Amino acid sequence: MTTPRERTPARITLTVIGMVLLTGLALLLVYETRRVLTWIVIAAFFATALHPLASWFERRVPWIRRGLSTLLVFLLVFLVLAGLVAVFVVPLVNQGTQFVNDLPRIIHDTQAGRGPLGGLINRFHLRDYVAAHGAQLREFLTRLGAPTLGFLRGTATTVAGILTIFVLSYLMVLQGPRIVDGVLDVLAPRWGKRVRRVGRECARMITGYITGNLLISLICGVLTYVVLAVMRVPFAGLLALFVAFADLMPLIGATLGAVVATLAAFLHSLTAGIVVLVFFIVYQQIENHVLQPLIMARTVRLDPLTVVISILIGVELAGLLGALLAIPVAGVLQVVVRDVWRERRVRHAADRPPPDGGKAEPPPVGAGAEPPPGEGVTPRRTG
Fold first, then answer.
1. Fewest C-beta in 10 Å: which of 1, 6, 59, 281?
2. Is the residue at 53 inside a domain?
3. What is the pTM assigned to this prediction?
């Protein structure tokens, strides 16, 4: 007959094996559903940014309930997105059509050595290179048509992802307060109050970062479009849209957009290239020293080293999406770590004994205070 002591090692071994198998299954599940989990994370960030606006509508107007306030907020977001499409996409389509119509003339001028591309071809003797490697270039261009099906499939997946994120964000804003209240009711009152406070700080930080970053990118895109349009650089709308999207990426995005726009301006003319280069140098100084501190000073308080490390880790884990979400995730972790450290200090201060070894003297009895029972009272003689 085996004793409980003899069964303990086998039980521990089986428990460890079970935990390892469960961890492996959890990691496999995360890997297989990584695309859906990415959509959920993006939707959660957007829902966190839109939740205060829906709550504001619900508080300000008494007859508006949560469902109606959420619907109004998302209608407002849809109108803003439609306005951005009208401002950027319509000129982009017109310029794309113009580029297709002008493509034969551009090719003819390039072959004749005219225009910016023709001058580059003559200067660097690229015509001789094209003539010597014509067969390889034609084979390369033929292979470019092979990934068309994959491109279409990726486009369909992107559209489905955008719609899914929109629906998930709507449901999170609509049902979020009820779900949060239900989870916090399960916790103890002290823990529930602490989680609510930390969550409020994280939500304020995420909302400020998203709105501030979008505002800075919008300013950058509009000013870039104005400068490119004044200098008559071709495809100013497309270049400005690229610069605005690139500016969403912290640190390196503005430089990347500036390089592309400046190269396009130099291809147009030397004067336009110099003007656009000076504009980006001046604008990046204003953005780094005026716009960034003014808009994000009260939201994301991270030192530059933490920002760079967060972006590098985010790019390595999730590419462009990781770069966009690296700073808010680092800010959330900073809020959580700061709260844990604060709670630990308070707990250590409460457990620390008094300096006098724990013997506290009773407070002196003042002139107007009532003395304790049995002290300061002369007993009455009887008899």
1. 1
2. no
3. 0.62
Q: How many domains does the chain have?
A: 1
- Is pLDDT at 381 greater than 50 in this prediction? no
- Distance, in Å, from the CA atom of 65 to the CA atom of 57, rounded to the nearest integer, reads 9
- The reported pLDDT for the residue numbered 114 is 61
Residue 252 maps to a domain: yes
User: CA–CA separation, 329 vs 202, rounded Å?
Assistant: 9
pLDDT band for position 383 (50/70/90)? very low
Select from 83, 267, 46 the least CA-distant residue to 170: 46
| pLDDT attached to residue 367 | 46
Please give the average per-residue pLDDT across 307-325, as a whole number. Answer: 77
Per-residue buried b or exposed e for 354-376, using 16+ beta carbons within 10 Å of the residue's own CB: eeeeeeeeeeeeeeeeeeeeeee
Other Cβ atoms closer than 10 A to 226: 13
- Find out whether 234 and 268 touch, Cβ atoms under 8 Å: yes
192 within some domain: yes
User: For residue 36, what is the enclosing H or E element?
Assistant: helix 34-60
Domain containing 311 equals: 187-345
* Residue among 331, 364, 383 at smallest CA distance from 201: 331
Residue 372 near residue 245, CB atoms below 8 Å: no
40: number of Cβ within 10 Å: 15
